Every structure is written in C-alpha cells, then in structure tokens.
Request: fold
Amino acid sequence: MTFLPGLSQPAPPTMVVWNSAMTAYNFGLGHPMAPARLDLTARLARGLGLFDLEHVSIGVPEVASDAELETVHSSEFVAAVRRVSADPMSPDEARGLGTDDDPAFAGMHEAAARLAGGSLMAASAVLDGSALHAVNFGGGLHHAARERASGFCIYNDSALAIQRLLDGGIRRVVYIDVDAHHGDGTESIFWDDPRVLTISLHESGLTLFPGTGFANETGGPQAEGSAANVALPSGTGDAGWLRAFHAVVPQLVGAFQPEVIVSQHGCDSHRRDPLAHLNISVDGQREAAIAVGNLAARHCEGRWIATGGGGYSVTDVVPRSWSHLIAIAAGRPVPLRTAVPEDWRAYVADKFGRDAPGMMGDDVELWWRSWEVGFDPNDAVDRSVMATRKAVFPFHGLDPWFD
Reply:
C-alpha cells in the first residue's frame, strides 16, 4: 500500500474530530493557547470543502470519563483537576494547575476531558475499522504527564489514544512529534514500555521549554531505545528540519514495524510563531505530514491518528497548517498555491482586524539534502542528527553511519 497524495487512489475513510464545544478549553484573554485557533481551523477546512468529502466523517467528542483518563493519569491527578475546575481560586501549583502556563478556570476538567475524548474517539474508530485515518486538531497536548499538567496541557490526549490502541490489542505503536517543543509528557508516560516508540523532533532544550529531549534520553531500563529525540538548534529552517526528519524517522519506523502511527503536528515550528525559534514554513509542515502519512501506508496498512498541538500564530499559520493536515489525512491534499477562500479572509479581517494570507502555502522552495550524501561535522543540524542516530539506532539493529 502506498500513500500518494493527489493521485487517484481510493479515498481513505477519515474521521475529523470537531465540535465548537472544544473551544471551551480557554485559559483566558491573552493566553497563547487561544481557542480561536480551533475555530479558525474548522472554518478554513470547511471553506476548502474538506468536511464535505463523502469519505470524511465529523466525530463529535464526548467528555472522557475518569476511568478513561486514569488509563494514563493517576486518580489523584484527575481528582485534583476536578477540584481546581470547580474552584479556580484554589489552585494546585504542585500539580501544575493554576500556574502562568496553565491558569485555572471554571470547567477546566470538562474542557480538557473533551479534547481527550476526541483522541479516544479517534483511537476507537481506527480500532473498529470505521476510520483508517483520524484527525483531532484540538488534541496533541503532549506536555501533560501522569501526575502533572504542564505547558498549556492538562490531560495528555495522545497518550490516552496510544493506551486505548494497546488495550485494544495493538502490539506496537510509533508516536511521532514534530512540535517545536519536546514531547516530554507523552515520552514520560511510555518511558518504560517497549510497545511504544516515541520520536520527537524539536528545538533544543538549551533554548526552549521544557528543557529536555536530548539525544541521550532513550527510554527506561525495560525499554531501551524506545525514545528518540532530535534536538535541533535554534533557527533551523526547512532544509535542516526535513533533512533531520528523513535521517531519523523513516529508519526507526521501518525497524520498529508499528501497527499504528500516532502523530502530533504542533505548528509552532513556523518562522512566525511567537513562542519558538525555528524557521519552518507551512510548506515544510505540509511535507512532514505527507511523510508521516506515507509511513503509515507503508508500515501500518494506513492506520494513522494525527493531532494538533502547539501553534500560536493564530490567523497566519495554524489554520492553514492544520487544514493541510486534514486534507492529507483525507487523501485529498490542497495544493500550496490554492487561494485561501475569500469569505474566510473576510471573517479574519472582521473579527481580528488582520489581513490573512492569500495562499495556502508560503511560496518557498522546499529542498533538503538526503542523509545519503554524507554527514557534515561542521553542520549543527547534522551533529544533532548524528547524536540521535548514535544513541538510538543500535538498539534497533541499525548502523548510525549508513542506515
């Protein structure tokens, strides 16, 4: 099975998780995690006709139950979120609740559990075969750990989806995280589980929160080699980012042979994002999504769950990047030179007082050097890539220099 976007393949049954109730995940005015990111993405995807495709269904997420949340979070943590949700004036900063990153707000538990319910729904759809691909662009809250909220993330929906897959009989899952920030929460939850390989490609923790995700973080004692981290230097652009992706991710996925891929597509790697320091284009982010889809087709019979994540350029970047993700998952990619629908641009101008981009891409020249051309020790990206390959590849029977 090969995933070839834009050609005449049968369209994969695709579920997109969406309901306006998801915008209740709202830390307040001025917080970077603006719920408008989700509303604008849904409006743009609908304007592009993606929600009207015959093979695309819209899944309305339910609030995840405590029992479901406790498959990856402790009961004490869930109870703490409930308490703070009911009384936001009594924060629990030891558990990351009521901090600057994660301000407490009334209804926080229900809002976060609904996003979690969306990724659980996606996993169930893939398990029962009603969807081959599923997208929850409101998910990807990858900093949440078993016992603690962190980095705008209360419940870790990606980890919940992975655990549901495992509980449903899936034997091996690869988690691919291309957010600018290290996917530390998801990694920590499966740190010692050999059934899950977590791969995170992110800006180095030397210059960006959460300060983790270095090449020597490779998994727990019962699961050595189950975590792979590519810590990229600040300022890395499309060419370096895509070179790093293709020098690490396909090789590890091929060796691990997962049955499902779960991916996190935080788009804060974009050059216009205010919270990170990478230099990626929407074009590059789209290319990475296509690559993940190809890997799912090649190794997982197409089974793929994709989530959103970070991304704080609310009108210029997030809606375009995640609309591309939806389109790619649906097997009907939107060409980069497609005009952004005028009614969507008018809505942005009216509501936000901004001129939205006119095209679905950033009109850049995408090019990167294949790893096969050789390792350049004078290149900071190559040094990061080689550090990861040397740390992780031998656990999977791969040669760091040649595979």
User: Anything to note?
Assistant: Residues 37 and 314 are 5 Å apart (CA to CA). The two ends are 23 Å apart (CA to CA). The chain has eleven helices and eight strands. The first helix runs from residue 36 to 47.
